[in-house]
Amino acid sequence: MGDVVRKLSGLVGNLSVRTSLTTLVALTGIVAVVIGVLSLSRMSTVAESGRNIYSEALIPSRDIATIRENVRLYRYQGLTMVTSTDSALAADAKAAMQAAKNVIDTKISDYSSRDIGSDQRAALESFATAWSDFQNLGDQATALKAAGKTAEWAAFRKEKVSPKLTEALGYMDDLSAATDARADAALRDAENDYRGARVVVLVVLVIGLVLAVLVALVMAGGVIRPLRQFSAVLNAVADGDLTRDSGITSRNDLAQETTKATENISQRVSAIQTDTGTAVDAISKIAGIIGRINEFQTTIASAVEQQSAVTGGMAADLSAAAVGAEMIGTGIKQVTGVADDNRRAAHATASAAADLTQLSDDLQGMVRSFRY
Predict the structure, then answer these.
(1) Residue 145 has pLDDT above 90, yes or no
(2) How far apart are CA 153 and CA 149, in angstroms?
(3) When you count CB atoms within 10 A of the terminal residue's CB, does the N or C end of the chain come out lower?
(4) The CATH number, out of the four listed (1.10.10.10, 3.40.50.150, 3.40.50.200, 1.20.120.30), of the domain defined by the range 2-225
């Protein structure tokens, strides 16, 4: 991964610091958007599974319970109608039977209109047929009871009506079992959708985090590498190596400024060394002139001794002394000129040192501003 980061750092090294930071923020935003979109998509799938559980399990189960309840109500009200001696109570029972019948027919129609399995539809159709037969048999039993044929009525109910009701309720049990199986399948699908959504979101989240870290390392490398190279150049300059090159090949704003600062420092230090060499040459000249003055003084001393010893050669010695004095004057003038040159060189050295100090302060400010 380190090689990948270095290669990518080289690719983005030509971007400016602002562009690098903007790119990092943009890529992070893109990763967040992708994660959000995938999360919403998977959440939509889970929500659809929940709706399937409601439509394929809860509502059908509720309809089945309603049908069962109204079948029992229909049977109870039928017995009340044929056995009651109170005409008003019998009329109320008949009305309740009709209401229960309407509810059952409505629920059968509603259940049949849904997206149900073949086993559910077969059980529902069988129940509807048995339920219709049960109602017809009930009407026949009611006619026997109304005709006063109580024994035949009782036997007919026992042999025909009750078995048909048991058959119809058996089909209802089959429908309930098929509905429960469909509900279990919908529940398993919902659980699988949830697990799949969780895995997808976690995988995308991990990938997004890895990409964010990778991009951050690439951007940081593009910013930090020029600073480290510049620091190495400064250490080399401090050790006296003015041939050290920064090796910064990036073209972003930080790298360009760092390269300019490195070159400027090298030029200033070279100028200081040149000025120092000039000052050393001037001092060497002064030492040579002082040596010549010493030679003149020795000559003058010899002339004085000769003047004391040889009176006759005084005029010649005075003449030699005058020449020596003139040479001393010339030497003093040369000393004065060299001193002026030395003063100017010292002034140039002080000016270059001040410029170097100012440049060092500016460079330290730049390094502090990019410190992480």
Answers:
(1) no
(2) 6
(3) C
(4) 1.20.120.30
| 252-369: CATH architecture | Orthogonal Bundle (1.10)
Contact 286, 342 (CB under 8 A): yes
Question: DSSP letters along 1-69, please?
Answer: -HHHHHHHHHHHTTS-HHHHHHHHHHHHHHHHHHHHHHHHHHHHHHHHHHHHHIIIIIHHHHHHHHHHH
Q: Which helix (H) or strand (E) holds 76?
A: helix 59-83
Give the Cβ contact number of residue 231 at 10 Å: 13
Q: Is the pLDDT of residue 83 over 80?
A: yes
Side-chain-side CA neighbours of residue 199 (13 Å): 6
Place of tokens 């972003």: 252
- Phi, psi of 247, deg, nearest 5: 70, 15
| Short-list 100, 134, 129, 137, CA closest to 112 | 129
Its pTM stands at: 0.47
Alpha carbon of 157 to those of 91, 131, 146, 215: distances in Å?
21, 15, 14, 84
Tens digits of residue pLDDT in 161-179: 999 999 999 999 999 898 8
Give every CB contact of residue 362 below 8 A, 6+ residues apart in sequence: 261
Are 2-225 and 252-369 the same fold in CATH?
Answer: no
* Domain layout of the chain by residue ranges: 2-225, 252-369
